[in-house]
Amino acid sequence: MRDYPFTILDVAGILNLKVRRRQPTNMDVDCPFCGHKKGKMNLNFAKNVFRCNYCGESGGMIELYSKVFQISNAQAFAEICEILHDNKKADALPKPIYTPDMEQIPKADSETRHQTYSMLLSQLILSKATEKNLMKRGLDAEQIVKYGYKSTPAFGFHKIVSAIMARECVLEGVPGFYTKKNNTYGINFNKHASGILIPIRSMDRRIEGFQIRLDRPIEDKKYIWFSSSNQFRGTSVGGPVHFIGNPADKTVYVTEGALKADIAHAFCKKTFVALAGVSHYRALEPIFAQLKRNGVENIVEAYDMDKYTNPHVEKSCMQMMEMANAYGFSVHRLCWDKKYKGIGDWLASRIGACEFAGSR
Question: Helix, strand, or coil here: 80?
């Protein structure tokens, strides 16, 4: 890997990006491409890369500069170096807050994560408030248990970790767990970030990771990942894709959000793949490859209805559909009553619905 005389923080300083949230290994800033003002762009200090979770722009630190000014990477590199040689400007740049003592651990294999996460679920409860919330969304008690939803804990973190370790589960490399100063393991729950713990499952129903649907949004965020990328010897979850249904169905629906996919499947029994966000469509490549091998014929785009009003969502829709076409699927779009944003909401309003309307 090439060594550069600057970091993505230096580039952020040059561009004067507005910082909204800081963590030890990354920070959220306002996106200079789509202009979103709530810190949708993430800058990763360890990898010197960026990604906007709203418009999907991504790349390395040189591309961050070159895309803003619409110049070549070679010219961007030269200009960054020239600016940083100006001591007055260099002194004004933010100092890196990523340090070697925030080292990360490679993610454990799928089976290890599934075993540890399954044991974690066995240590947690489902609060009455969480159960009521899920039932209000259209799930029944049996489905809530089947899908594995639990409430995030507000206390007793050490007891949870001890119980998991007592059953000889591996914690190293499992997103959400990290090493504390006394060389014991910690778990990255927070009483101020309570919510619904949503299992993200692979095609073979293994738990790949978790999302948390927050009871009270943090700034503009309703969902966060159960991760430990901001902790010593922690691990990033990496935004896994959720799958529910029959991997050999002739038709598979692609939507956004595991909870929406589970609710939609509960009502219509069709097969769904769910992205964490529409801009993460590239994560579908290995899924599409496997579905093709399984004999799947049709991919139906079932993103939220803001795809018709938000150009960034529509762009991601088109990119996903183009990818599906490239794998040889017959690709269709699904629409419904626009007063219901997501497919889960729409199906929940039509209890007992088993047929989709408006695909084209």
Answer: helix
Q: pTM, whole model, 2 decimals?
A: 0.78
Whether the CB-CB separation of 138 and 266 falls below 8 Å is answered with yes
Q: Is 223 helix (H, G, I), strand (E, B) or coil?
A: strand
Q: How far is CA 321 from the centre of its chain?
A: 20
φ and ψ at 13, to 5 degrees? Answer: -65, -40
Crossing angle of helices 8-15/73-84, nearest 10°? 80
As a whole number of Å, the end-to-end CA separation of the chain is 46
H or E stretch covering 267: helix 258-268
- Check if the beta carbon of residue 153 is closer than 8 Å to that of residue 165: no
Q: Tokens for 251?
A: 């038709």
- 163-173 pLDDT tens trace: 999 999 999 99
Three-state DSSP class for residue 66: helix
In the chain, count of helices (H) and strands (E)?
12, 16
Contact status, residue 45 vs residue 59, Cβ threshold 8 Å = no
